[in-house]
Amino acid sequence: MSRPLIGITAYVEPVGWGVWRDVPAVLLPEAYVRAVTAAGGRAVVLPPDDRDADVLRVLDGLLLAGGADVDPARYGQLPAPRTESRPGRDAGELALLTAALDTDLPVLGVCRGMQLLAVAAGGSLYQHLPDVVGHDLHRPAPGVYGGHGVRFAPGSLAATVLAGVVRVNSYHHQAVADPGRLTATGWSDDGVVEAVEDPHRPFLLGVQWHPENEPDPRPIAALVRAAGEHRSAREHRAGPALPVTSLPGRARDATSR
């Protein structure tokens, strides 16, 4: 059986390589791809595109990656001074997410991805977390991960997937204030929401940290497993494929030679 196909949403940022400088490019930290591959999946990078979500027809799971802030207009607020949003990325990812929810496609949101899940569910965000918790431990310095303890609601998907995990990495300056229709099931030592989920769906999970950069990226492995189960269920509903000799027009083609 082929590997489950996991679509991973990508950044569009000005970057440089070789002789080129400040060129808008579609990019994604390789850690996401490595984690999906290690879990037995096949990564498919998805640039921002809000025209349609047809690509989901061939995917078995969706990973909403980290990145810049969600546009505050999406949850009815004006941007704060430190908010840096990417409205085009929001539009493309929300189109994918809406279509994924319509078919119960397994979805994992990482960092910004978790925040987008909450906003799509009618929730809201804290635009600058240090103003709320009074410290910078969730993003100590540019390009430097923090770390903190974490706890999960007993019996939740997060608790099942992350059994035994008591500490995670951290790099974010925004956080979920209201999970909307989702359920908060994980919290840091200072009470910041670290996991959200929808218990009424087969697999919809958001984590505030970056499991792709953890030694044990369990949430990504759980997404790949759920994607494999989703593919098996979809193929079962579709029934067995017709043999090649039974395809329409096959007999006619064979006798016309």
Task: Give the secondary structure arrangement, pairings included.
Layout: E1 5-9, E2 11-17, E3 20-27, H1 30-38, E4 42-46, E5 61-64, H2 87-102, E6 107-110, H3 112-120, E7 124-126, H4 130-133, E8 146-152, H5 157-161, E9 167-170, E10 175-178, E11 183-188, E12 193-197, E13 204-207, H6 218-238, H7 250-255
Parallel strand pairs: 1-4, 1-5, 5-6, 6-13
Antiparallel strand pairs: 2-3, 7-10, 8-9, 8-11, 11-12, 12-13
Tell me what the structure shows:
This protein is of the alpha/beta class and 257 residues long. It has one domain: Class I glutamine amidotransferase (GATase) domain (Rossmann fold, 3-Layer(aba) Sandwich). The protein contains seven helices and 13 strands. The strands form three sheets. It has a nine-stranded mixed sheet with strand order 4-1-5-6-13-12-11-8-9, with helices on both faces. A two-stranded antiparallel sheet has the order 2-3. The chain is globular and about 60 Å long. GO terms for molecular function: gamma-glutamyl-gamma-aminobutyrate hydrolase activity; transferase activity. Residues 229-257 are annotated as: Disordered. This is Putative glutamine amidotransferase.
CATH architecture, please?
3-Layer(aba) Sandwich
Q: How many β-strands, per DSSP?
A: 13
CATH class: Alpha Beta
**CATH fold description:** Rossmann fold
Give the number of domains: 1
Strand sequence of the main sheet, in spatial order?
A: 4-1-5-6-13-12-11-8-9
Helical amount: 25-40%
In the predicted model, the low-confidence regions spanning at least 5 consecutive residues are 250-257
As a percent range, the share of strand residues is 25-35%
Query: Distance N terminus to C terminus?
Result: 35 Å
- H/I helix tally: 7
State the secondary-structure class: alpha/beta
Query: What is the CATH homology-level superfamily?
Result: Class I glutamine amidotransferase (GATase) domain
Mean pLDDT: 93
Assembly state of the chains shown: single chain
Order of helices and strands: EEEHEEHEHEHEHEEEEEHH
Using the alpha-carbon principal axes, give the shape.
Answer: globular
